Amino acid sequence: MGGRSVRKQRILFIGAGRMAEAIFAGVLRTQKDYIEEIVVANRSDLARLHAMRDQYGVSVTTDWRDAVAKADVVLLAMPPQNHRDVLTQLAPYIKGQLVMTVAAGIGIGLLEETLPAGTPVVWIMPNTAAGIGESITLFTCGRHVEDKQRDVLNMVLAGIGEAVECTEQQVHDLTAITGSAPAFLYRMVEELELSAQGYGMAPETARRMVAQMIYGSAAMLKTGADPADLRDSVTTPGGATAAGLRVMDERRFSEMMQGAVEATNARAREMANE
Ligand SMILES: NC(=O)c1ccc[n+]([C@@H]2O[C@H](COP(=O)([O-])OP(=O)(O)OC[C@H]3O[C@@H](n4cnc5c(N)ncnc54)[C@H](OP(=O)(O)O)[C@@H]3O)[C@@H](O)[C@H]2O)c1
């Protein structure tokens, strides 16, 4: 991991929402030795900033301009629609800091064209499991990212889980699968919990059952086993599971999943252009 050669970093988060919290919680949990200071900024929600300061010991501000000059890394963790404005305001303060964004649909291009020439920029696309160090994060680097910035990037990425370097287009196309699909999975969990409760299970027992079922299934997949083989191993031909799978097929499960991915990507593109 590149983090080993990294000196202590000051990281400024612009945006103090769920994704900012997930990332700095993950980084603070596993990479504290590489962190000098984390500063978290939003525009107005002081109560949230104070809660974060008390829980994580981060510094907080409603004016990020105060913190940019001293920052080694500026991480944009606010909605895609606000990027152009904030990047324009940020540009005069940038003198070599590594600038990252986590915003869906925002490519390297917008960062490089808005920030001073030569600014190292990275687009990272984690998911909310970052907070427990279990994100799968897609990332792509701009033209001016050198080894020393890659080391810092790797330190942050390793703090929040696993990562895969992609082309910019791949990050666009795959965000639905790594960033949004956890919501698809949780939606399925809600239905399974409801079914379990319908058969008389207490809500907390239903939650525990379904969570462990998914955890175990994910662990089987992580051994490298093929999902179709795993599915076969629980599906006796003509048996009970096969009857359930047949309903999924009859109701066009494949079409539904592909449609969900496509709609997610289309909306991400729309928001990036707004
Ligand atoms: N949630 C996910 O699973 C996920 C996954 C991958 C990527 N992302 C990306 O992460 C980004 C943030 O998502 P989120 O879920 O964390 O959103 P969120 O919970 O709604 O938080 C957004 C934060 O941005 C702040 N903000 C908005 N405009 C700002 C500005 N001009 N200057 C400073 N702060 C500003 C907001 O606070 P104020 O309104 O008080 O300023 C708030 O703290 C988005 O771009 C999203 O695409 C999210």
What does this structure look like?
By secondary structure, this protein is of the alpha/beta class. The chain has two domains: 2-166, 3-Layer(aba) Sandwich (Rossmann fold), CATH 3.40.50; 174-273, ProC C-terminal domain-like fold (Orthogonal Bundle). It has helices spanning 18-30, 46-56, 65-68, 83-90, 108-114, 147-160, 168-198, 203-222, 227-233, 240-250, 253-273; strands at 9-14, 35-41, 59-61, 73-76, 98-101, 121-125, 135-141, 161-165. It has an eight-stranded mixed sheet with strand order 3-2-1-4-5-6-7-8, sandwiched between helices. Strand 4 (73-76), helix 4 and strand 5 form a beta-alpha-beta unit. Bound molecules: NADP nicotinamide-adenine-dinucleotide phosphate. The site of NADP nicotinamide-adenine-dinucleotide phosphate has 26 residues, from helix 1.
Comma- or semicolon-separated keywords:
274 residues, alpha/beta, ProC C-terminal domain-like fold, 2 domains, 54% helix, 15% strand, elongated, binds NADP nicotinamide-adenine-dinucleotide phosphate
